[in-house]
Design a protein that fits this description.
Number of strands: 0
Oligomer: single chain
Structural class: mainly alpha
Order of helices and strands: HHHHHH
Mean pLDDT: 93
Largest sheet: none
Distance between the termini: 57 Å
Number of helices: 6
Shape: elongated
Low-confidence stretches: none
Helix content: 55-70%
Length: about 140
């Protein structure tokens, strides 16, 4: 198998990744860009955590709107809440190690802050919200709201 080598991680990551996977499959381990491969593998885990945090923040935003704007409740908010719960459950099923994030109280800081920012931005309400998420993971995933 002929392989073109020398693609730069910094100038063409797609060509670089194709080259690295071809080198792996050809078992040409001495030619691998180990440092950047390690970074990319690590980034996969971070990407999964960011995805989970984003979905939880979106869910929390809609739960806050649901709670504090009952007169505006509608099918769209309900759909977003259900969709995010399903996606979160799916993500946790496919990547069980993410459960450690959910059990870490410090991890909740960013999703909660993102949710509060979005809530105030979308509602223009003037009120106080707790500095930390007042709900447990189980309660935000509870379909009865």
């Amino acid at each position: 198998m002929a392989l073109t080598t020398g693609h730069s991680y910094d100038t063409d990551i797609i060509a670089w990744s194709n080259e690295q996977s071809a080198l792996l499959r050809a078992r040409r381990f001495s030619e691998l860009d180990i440092e950047h491969i390690s970074d990319e593998v690590e980034d996969v885990g971070k990407s999964e955590q960011r995805e989970l945090a984003h979905r939880i923040a979106l869910l929390l935003t809609h739960l806050l709107k649901w709670k504090y704007q009952p007169e505006r409740r509608g099918a769209s908010w309900d759909s977003t809440i259900r969709t995010q719960r399903i996606a979160i459950e799916s993500r946790l099923r496919k990547t069980p190690s993410l459960k450690a994030s959910i059990e870490d109280a410090d991890w909740w800081t960013d999703p909660w802050a993102d949710a509060v920012r979005a809530f105030f931005s979308e509602t223009n309400l003037d009120m106080e919200l707790p500095d930390v998420c007042p709900w447990s993971f189980e309660s935000i995933m509870d379909e009865s709201r």
